[in-house]
Amino acid sequence: MLKISAFFSIMVEKPCISAYFCSMTNKRTTRREDDNKPKKRGTGSSERGGNSREQRAGGRERGAESREQRAGSKERGASTRETRSDRPERSAGRKEYSSKSRTSTTKASPFDKFDIDKMREAKTASLEKKERRRPSRAGSNERGAGSRERGAGSREQRAGSKERDAGSRERGVESRERGVESREPSVESKKPLDVSKGFDRKKPNDNEEIRLNRFIANSGVCSRRKADELIEKGQVTVNGEVIKELGYKVKYSDKVKFDGKLLKPGKLVYVLLNKPKDFITTLDDPLERRTVVELTSKLTSERIFPVGRLDRNTTGLLLLTNDGDLADKLSHPRNQVKKIYEVELDKSLHAKDFEKIKEGVELEDGPAKVDQISYLDGKSKKFVGVEIHIGRNRIVRRIFESLGYEVVKLDRVVYAGLTKKDLPRGRSRMLTKEELIYLKHLNKY
């Protein structure tokens, strides 16, 4: 009871709450009334069923239309098959028609509108025209055959010319090979030159004048510079008279004597010698030591003299000749003929001394500078290669002696471009023509 009284007191105090509960009560009442009313069932579903039946009826109508369309398409397919079956007949008919048309066209010629006589005349004219063409064709065939024969002949001529050209080329190659072999400066090339007789000098005129020193040099006594010294000493006589005048000219018919021996210019001889040790570079030695002339006596009987000098203990290349002009050319300092020496020292050459020699050293007779200097490959620093053009006496030995070295061996391996190839020590040979031409055109090496 207390709870109910409290509830009503709240309802009185709170009118909004009482209004809320009143509205809720009214809603329940209206909902019960609606539930008590009789309901109409199936109305919406019947409406929906009616719509679906109408849709199915429409679908059946469309299906009937599609079946009618398929039936029509089948009829059209049957008709097309019938038309296809009729095609061979139509094509056969067309063929017959075309053959008939061709037959009719061949038969129907322009001559149909003329009479038979004109047709025969036209046929005869065409046959005559064909007959006229036949001879011309035969002639053209003959001309074609002739041109083909001429073409075959020209081809044969070209083949023959090619063979001749090939033969000429082979001959040219052989001639060039022979020319190369003849130009190669080898030791074997001296054989066909018959060097034992020397090279023929141009036959002089008896009245032709020549300088006395050149006459002496051409006689094989010495060089022209050395001949001037002999003339100044009074060792030369011309027609029994002593001549001391430099530049004096004589004739080939004059009688020129040196130390009582009659001089006569002979054939020019050029000998290359690989000089061994213990031989003197002179013609005669008062001490009766062995000279380089003894090594060449079997090679030539002409009187020859050495060009330049090599010490007794120096080995290597030495040129001997009776050509005074060439000897003077090779000996004169202005031509700077270069020589290459292989030097063996008593001790290794120091780098500082190497540079001093390269820059040039001062000797008692003036400065001495080498053209090139290098250590020999594969050997110790005792072995040195030196290239020099100075021709002073014992110049290579004195250069090393000035720096405190002693030369154990000294070998000249190159002289004026000539080498020791195929020339053993102590042997000599004649110069080849190519080597002689090389020396004649020598300017600066």
Write the layout of secondary structure elements.
Elements: H1 2-13, H2 15-36, H3 43-107, H4 116-183, E1 209-211, H5 212-218, H6 224-232, E2 236-238, E3 241-242, E4 249-251, E5 256-258, E6 261-263, E7 270-275, H7 293-296, E8 305-307, E9 315-321, H8 324-331, E10 339-345, H9 351-359, E11 361-363, E12 366-368, E13 372-375, E14 383-388, H10 395-401, E15 407-415, E16 418-419, E17 428-430, H11 433-440
Parallel strand pairs: 9-15
Antiparallel strand pairs: 1-4, 2-3, 2-5, 5-6, 7-9, 7-17, 8-9, 10-14, 10-15, 11-12, 13-14, 15-16
What are the key terms here?
single chain; 445 residues; alpha+beta; Structural Genomics Hypothetical 15.5 Kd Protein In mrcA-pckA Intergenic Region, Chain A; Pseudouridine synthase; nine-stranded mixed beta sheet; four-stranded antiparallel beta sheet; 11 helices; 17 strands; elongated
